[in-house]
Amino acid sequence: MKEKLIRESKEALRPKTRGEMLRRSGQLEVKIKDLKPNLRWFTITVKVLRLGDEKTVFSRKDGDQHRVAEALVGDETGTVLMSLWDDDIDKVKELVGSTIKIQNGLVTLYKGSMRLSLGRFGTLEKVEEDIVVNESVNISEKHYGRSENYSYRRNFEGI
Prior knowledge:
The chain is an alpha+beta fold and 159 residues long.
């Protein structure tokens, strides 16, 4: 009986579709136009266009001081703002104008607009690929309101 439960629980954790399997392994290749709020575990190749100013923030969890900055990155389908923290800022500072590959990427919402992020498990590396960027479309300019179902928080208004 116990073996059957263990086998069933392992089966529940196993990816059900090829897309889910690719996402979990970070092998799902996407373009900027494909990014959606809360998308995770994907690979994307983008060109770093510019790096914004650094700001100092303090963690709500433990009060530690961190550096945060945003970079504008893009591909042939559009651009998006990328949130960078601490050492990642220094890595990207050296790569402005270069093409990078992000593995195990993460899309978050900050003040209602999409941000590309590395998260805890993401990595970035320089690649020798030239990308012609479509700067006429910035998907970070689209605002996602509270009524849309992209937030993990529940809305209990009107109950």
